[in-house]
Structures are given as structure tokens and as C-alpha cells.
Specification:
This protein is an alpha/beta fold. Helices cover 31% and strands 24% of the residues. The chain is built from eleven helices and twelve strands. The strands form two sheets. An eight-stranded mixed β-sheet has the order 6-7-8-3-9-10-12-11, with helices on both faces. The longest helix is centred in the middle third of the chain and has 18 residues.
Length: 334
């Protein structure tokens, strides 16, 4: 597969009255055409801010993309002017946000909001755009699609609003879809329906996808590659099956141990929480950001930051950023 997008040394900061927030710190990775990348981590790990940086949606002030490159189909998105980026956003790279109620305009009908992108990016006439909008709503499973075009967002349930957001995101057949925790506000049954819908549409449209979540269970069934973020950095990355079966970073190991597993004996699979709290992103430590919570830490971990290096040359490299081999290291007690 060809590389669709290269993220190189991405750095994003927020300049607040309380100090500088080091939100994204030197993030680099490649995304292949048709690949689904799952990005996981606790709140504040830089998952969403990194995605908003790619999309050119960081509010300025107080935020600023300080450095790096995002090479998408031969162009650096970070160097595009706002008008150029507006033409990329929606047409080539689309995004589904966490809360559809705040992402949809409450005073415009759903039909108006979907057809706007079709007219802007594809140059469709009003009648053609309306027909395509009805087709999109039908594709995402909204009944009586042509009649619902005249409805406003508040006339849809939470799950249906998220389906509308998906229809809007896919309206121009983007090459890349970024989904930022799109099922968090929905109940479990609707979550499963939305995830199955996205998987089906991804396969039909053959697009690449970045799925941002804190739910490892979703990533296991959806993604090809998993990327674990902590303290605004990538701490582990690799093929989903390999990272789940052989995690190499203590944080990844901690996340997996806190996840209920159906394939293990109940008595031998006691859930273990990660002690402590995520770091204050204004005051990141000199060494590894996870060291203060890590049961495997050594003296070196607190003074020197480990680089993200290849652990194994697998089908899709397995990378990790840790000074300790968790398979051999003994967790410290007390």
C-alpha cells in the first residue's frame, strides 16, 4: 500500500494565563491508503489536539501548531492558506466529532448542512445536491431520508444525529476520515450500530480512517494499527493483534490489564488500575512522562526521555518508547 499521509515531528502548544500547555510533542507516523489507525490514551494525552492540528482547526489564540509537517497526497497541510485548507477539509479529509449536537448548526436544516459541502466541493446544483443528500441519509440508515432533509438537528435522536454527521463527513468521498470519539455520548447499543455502520462504509468506500478513542475494545475490532499516546507523545505503535498480545510499554500494559477480557479465566484475570493521574501538560517531566506512575521505572527513566524505536520488524513495525523490557522487568512494590 502507498502512504496516504505522513505526520512528521508535529508540535502543538496552547498559550494560556496559567502557562504553556505542551499538548502535542514531536508526533511522527505514516498512514497507508485504506488503513484504519486506532489512537488510544487517557483524556489529555494529545489524541484530539493532534487530529485538530491536522485539520487546521486549532483555535488561535490560544493554540498554535509550532512545528512539523503533515504531508497529505504530496502537500503539507500545515503550509496551506486558510482558503486552500477549506477546500481540503471535507473533500479530501473529513472529521466526525464527539458531540453531534454541538457540531451541527441548530438553526439550519440537516439538508442545508449536507448540501452545503456538495455544492462547495463538487459544484452540484441544488436539485442534484438534495438528491445526493437523501441518498447519503439513506446510506447511513435514516428512514424516510428525503422527508428528513427538512428536519432540524433537535428533531433527531443522539444516534440519528451521529448518523447525520457521518453522512456529512462522507458526502464528498474523502480519502481520509478522522473520527474523534464519535460514540462516547451514545448508549452501548447505538455505539455498536454506529461502529458497524462505519466499518461497512469504510470498506465500501475504501478510505483510510483514524479512530480516536479511550475504548480499547472498539480498537480491537476496528483498527489495523494501534497507536498509544501519553503526555502528548506516542509511547507504543504497532499492528493491533501484536500490541494486544505482546504489549511492550508499561502504559499499554496497564491499559490492557484494566480491560475486562472474555478469553481469560475470571480468577486469574483480576482488573488492575493504573495508579496516579495523567501529567499536568504545563509541567512535563524531563524524562519519561509516565515514570511517576510506572511500576517498572528505573533511575534513568526520570532523567532521560526514551526514543520511539523499533521493537520488532513485523507486518507494520512494532514501535515502543521505554527503557525497560516489561517482559523481563519486575514491577516495583509499594
Amino acid at each position: 500500500m502507498a502512504v496516504l499521509m505522513e505526520v512528521k515531528n508535529l508540535v502543538t502548544r496552547f498559550y494560556t494565563q496559567e502557562g504553556i500547555v505542551y499538548a502535542v510533542n514531536d508526533v511522527s507516523y505514516n498512514l497507508q491508503e485504506g488503513e484504519t489507525l486506532g489512537i488510544v490514551g487517557e483524556s489529555g494525552s494529545g489524541k484530539s489536539v493532534h487530529a485538530l492540528s491536522i485539520m487546521g482547526l486549532i483555535p488561535s489564540p490560544p493554540g498554535k501548531v509550532e512545528g512539523g509537517e503533515v504531508i497529505f497526497r504530496g502537500r503539507d497541510l500545515l503550509k496551506l492558506k486558510s482558503e486552500e485548507m477549506r477546500l481540503v477539509r471535507g473533500a479530501e479529509v473529513a472529521m466526525i466529532f464527539q458531540d453531534p449536537m454541538t457540531s451541527l448548526n441548530p438553526v439550519l436544516t440537516v439538508g442545508t448542512q449536507i448540501t452545503e459541502a456538495l455544492k462547495l466541493h463538487l459544484g452540484m446544483s441544488s436539485s442534484a445536491a438534495n438528491a445526493r443528500a437523501a441518498e447519503l441519509l439513506d446510506m447511513v440508515g435514516i428512514p424516510d431520508a428525503s422527508k428528513r432533509l427538512d428536519n432540524y438537528p433537535h428533531q433527531f435522536s443522539g444516534g440519528m444525529r451521529q448518523r447525520v454527521m457521518i453522512a456529512m463527513a462522507l458526502s464528498c468521498n474523502p480519502k481520509l476520515l478522522i473520527a474523534d470519539e464519535p460514540t462516547t455520548a451514545l448508549d452501548v447499543t447505538i455505539q455498536a450500530q454506529i461502529i458497524e455502520l462505519v466499518k461497512r462504509l469504510r470498506d465500501e468506500l475504501r478510505m483510510a480512517m483514524i479512530w480516536i478513542t479511550h475504548d480499547l475494545g472498539v480498537v480491537a475490532g476496528l483498527a489495523d494499527t494501534i497507536q498509544v499516546m501519553y503526555g502528548g507523545r506516542i509511547v507504543e505503535r504497532g499492528p493491533v493483534k501484536e500490541v494486544f498480545s505482546d504489549p511492550r510499554h508499561p502504559y499499554t500494559l496497564g491499559l490492557l490489564k484494566s480491560l475486562p477480557r472474555l478469553d481469560q479465566n475470571r480468577k486469574s484475570s483480576k482488573l488492575i488500575q493504573i495508579e496516579g493521574a495523567p501529567p499536568d501538560m504545563r509541567y512535563l517531566p524531563q524524562g519519561c512522562s509516565f515514570a511517576v506512575r510506572c511500576p517498572y521505572k528505573k533511575d534513568k527513566c526520570e532523567v532521560e526521555r526514551p526514543p520511539l524505536e523499533t521493537i520488532r520488524e513485523a507486518e507494520g513495525q512494532h514501535l515502543g518508547a521505554c527503557w525497560v523490557d516489561v517482559r523481563e522487568g519486575e514491577p516495583q512494590r509499594g
